[in-house]
Design a protein that fits this description.
homodimer, 355 residues, alpha+beta, 60s Ribosomal Protein L30, Chain: A, 2 domains, seven-stranded mixed beta sheet, four-stranded mixed beta sheet
Chain lengths: 355, 355
């Protein structure tokens, strides 16, 4: 996104983009004047910040005061607009969250767009504006970007890949291999909201619900958590594959077993009902504004208190613990009826393109 | 790309991926066990490095000793494999080059993949291995990544978005708005090779040529250049839109006019011939291993000497100069016949999906 940070250069671009009726065409990705106009008038105008205004194919920023953290995520969600969000704000939140799960403060983001020929400029503008709004609200500027266009039938509207970098203060060691026997397991709120909100809008699956995606940026919640309880061992946001996949992955990474208490899991009645209807397990459903936290048992009540005092953690709960001993790496669920079942790590058939 | 850096965990993944005959399916992007296996056995195995081995959704690196530089680029090139390269190594080179054009040393990369359902695992493995090879050869590790899968007909094989970060030493100010009247304009070698090599393989356009893409990482060349001539004002790689689009963009960014000397332009006979056949201007054709450099005229011979002493700059040439005075922002070409024409900034119709 280079070179043209001003709203419109009438000499270079004599005709305004027809945002109301226009569509993306192949010239918008081909490196010529049409692309420059799209970038200038839609992307650069919305994302405006001092780094993007440098107008180069890269951005230069001050040296970060600490260890560097980097994360990337692609977004291919369908539909592009959904209850509680859209692909643009989701791409901002999701990458901020991945950076934040290290305990780092997210500083900058990049955004790569892959747009299908024929995509309405008006929809692209909405996505860009939602994205710019999320960037402003989180204080994480989009400092550099790229736009590609593929022929009709070779893409699906818009895909976005965002990359975030952040800075990690000394003294924190928060990682998936750092979970210890005896740790408490906490979640920052109700699970499954995002996945069910998306499924409710799939063409082949429509059902009535007032559910909204929980898409939200978690960096401020994390900052409060690690300030109060720097002993946090691990943080992770249970996105694709939900809590079940995330806990199974972490159990393997840290070589521990985990036990969850079904009665402690915060699940909205609407999510529970939809999951029964669809025959899926809410533990396997994606979240986009929740995190799982692991900390020494003795610090769990304090961590819970801090999480609940934050707007994005008001419904936080202690949902289980890491078992003593090592080696089985299973995630077990003590059910409401006093039974005990293994939380399976599914193959992943049920929820395509959920993020 | 989290959690599974080891070659194969037989307990978690009892069945080996059938790389020879298998295809990507929707489960490979859905966050479950199938995705974990793909990431573990193909991506993490090939990209192996200490950062990826952290096994989290982000990577943590040492504090960079200087200003941070960040760039991102999407790759939607068709075909995926072409003479002189492939989408994987191109994605590494291209992003390294964008970072390097600031004068920075590239340090780390991320890679986001968007894969179409049905894509052969064998082709994916080839791409990953070319990418890993380019990463090793350049010394820039792929520290974090992401994989998404879209349904058949909603993508086109593989798209890749890479993001690079680097570190910029004090004392350099290399930027598109830093070109000054009187500057010399240099190019690091022959132009148009990449675009013509790609076009030669397009199904509707096949023609005979031995041309190969010039896809190459330019960071080492840049390091030599800025060490010898820190007064370099601007560097940019003329990719999409070629030299014509890049110079027009820079002329506007720095508010200057430029004059090129046609006889000085290094263009291979095969490129010249193909351009005549196709009715296109070599100045508008993409390059992936060349850079344009601007420096004070008095330093141009020294810069040329340094560039020519590097394997990737052996064919470097001084191709023109920045005109005295400001305000016209045109790029003019003095032709071999003594004429003078404006190098147009085309709209971008002629060369879709060239990178």
């Amino acid at each position: 996104m280079s070179g043209m940070e001003k709203p419109r250069n009438r000499r270079l671009f004599p005709h305004a983009l027809d945002v109301a009726n226009g569509r993306v065409d192949m010239t918008h990705g081909a490196g010529g004047r049409a692309m420059a106009q799209l970038v200038s008038e839609m992307f650069a105008a919305a994302f405006e910040n001092e780094y993007l205004a440098q107008g180069n194919d890269m951005a230069v920023m001050a040296p970060p005061p600490g260890r560097l953290v980097m994360s990337t995520d692609g977004y291919v969600i369908s539909p592009l607009f959904f209850p509680g969000g859209d692909i643009g704000s989701l791409a901002v939140h999701g990458t901020i969250n991945d950076v934040a799960m290290s305990g780092a403060k997210p500083l900058y983001m990049s955004a790569g767009f892959i747009i299908e020929e024929g995509f309405p400029l008006a929809d692209l503008k909405r996505i860009i504006e939602f994205m710019a709004g999320a960037s402003r609200a989180t204080g994480v500027p989009i400092v550099t970007g790229d736009t590609k266009v593929v022929e009709r039938g070779k893409g699906d509207g818009v895909f976005i890949v965002t990359t975030g970098v952040g800075v990690l203060p000394e003294g924190l060691h928060i990682s998936g291999d750092n979970i210890r026997p005896g740790d408490a397991i906490l979640v920052s709120g109700s699970i499954g909201d995002h996945g069910i909100a998306i499924l409710s809008k799939r063409e082949n699956l429509e059902f009535e619900t007032t559910l909204e995606s929980d898409s939200a940026p978690l960096h401020d919640l994390v900052a409060h958590m690690v300030a109060a309880v720097p002993e946090v061992h691990c943080l992770r946001d249970p996105t694709r594959g939900g809590v079940a996949a995330t806990l199974n992955e972490l159990a393997n990474q840290s070589d521990v077993g985990m036990a969850l208490d079904e009665d402690a899991l915060p699940i909205k009645p609407a999510v529970r009902g939809a999951c029964e209807l669809l025959g899926i397990d809410p533990l396997g459903v994606a979240n986009e504004g929740k995190l799982l936290a692991f900390c020494p048992a003795g610090r769990a009540e304090r961590l819970l208190e801090v999480m609940r005092s934050h707007p994005l953690g008001a419904e936080s709960a202690i949902i289980g613990h890491v078992e003593e001993g090592q080696g089985r790496n299973l995630v077990r669920l003590r059910t409401s009826f006093g039974g005990d079942r293994v939380v399976e790590w599914l193959n992943g058939e049920q929820l395509p393109r959920i993020c």
